[in-house]
Amino acid sequence: MRIFSPNETSTADLLVDAVYQGGRQGGAGDDPLPNLVGVSTGGGFRYRGRIDQLQLVVLTSNKRDPDWPDALDRETGVYTYYGDNKTPGRALHETPRRGNALLQRIFEDAQGGEAGRQKVPPVLVFTSAGEWRDMIFLGLGVPGVAGQRPAEDLVAVWRTRNDNRFQNYRARFTILRTENVARTWIESIIAGRPNASLAPPVWTTWVETGRVIPLLAPRTIQHRRRAEQFPSDPIGKEMITIIHSFFADNPHDFEQCAAELARMMVPDIASLDLTRRSRDGGRDGIGQMRIGTGASAILVDFALEAKCYAASHAVGVREMSRLISRLRHRQFGILVTTSCVDEQAYKEIKEDEHPILVISAGDIVRLLKDTGYGTPTAVRSWLERSFPSSL
Fold first, then answer.
1. CATH number of 3-209
2. Which of 156-165, 327-336, 380-389 shows the lowest mean pLDDT across its residues?
3. Predicted structure pTM score
4. Domain-by-domain residue ranges, the chain?
5. Among 293, 365, 377, 385, which residue carries the largest CB count within 10 Å?
6. Contact yes or no for 245/367 (Cβ under 8 A)
7. How much of the chain exceeds pLDDT 70, in percent?
8. Contact of 194 with 207, CB cutoff 8 Å
9. Is 227 exposed, middle or buried (0-12, 13-18, 19+ CB in 10 A)?
């Protein structure tokens, strides 16, 4: 990982996953982005120009908002970013920095053919490095995701806080396949004379043709280690502890919760029935997932297994083998656990190419945050409302 000191930010290129250090005085002036890309200090949305004539957009995330979990999927290059209407009391587009109006503008232009894409500014994506005001550059983004319907790229989602309902945007960008954004191109944009010849080729390709070339980074190790299956932040750890404690006296009731979590992970589940405890045949549930739409759709069978385990109790080879042995031809399995899968068991299912989808503690927390249950209080309310029989 390359680290640029504060003295280097004004002349540095933008390198993917590089750290750009800010000052160490403890104030807003420590922010490195004004020197790095010529934008204002502070805020998740920063831009040059006017809403109707944007020159450059910078998106930042501090990774500290559990209700609005901005996230980059490095394997697919898809970046999910939430707008700036994060509390009730305002209309969707009436935010102080006009971030949601900005999102609406660039996504509309992105669907307007080449003439519209010419109006879309470069979108530079940063995230907090976790120390001082240092920032990590995640990449150059464009609105939308290849293969996804335009209506799904920018969606207004509802949230509730203190019994008040309000809307905010969930936007999906694609990080383009370029590891370097030249300082000379950024400077030409800041000067008001953008030089397209200095832009990364993937950006020019998108503007001229609409073709998206994502930065894909497949995992080198297919199985996840133990630590990777748990939430890393204190709030996430508390959330999973609440879920385990809620079902600890009757772990069988966790099957209903596991079914809901599976639906969150796989929205195309068409049916899911929990089996009787005495006759489950090694499966806690059986269901079907729909692939495709309309009359052309097909249904694929799957089996569900739920394990309400404490963090110290991993799902081992024995339990995993039990699930695998119950899968029939052309079926797949879903394992939901409040803990993790033992590394040896995880490694074996990957090496042997068993069709098992693992939803571990960390996945559960991420799913709940994405669904709007991003705090321990919200999780407890969800459990009490959805599974009252366990109270």
1. 2.30.280.20
2. 156-165
3. 0.78
4. 3-209, 227-390
5. 365
6. no
7. 97
8. no
9. exposed
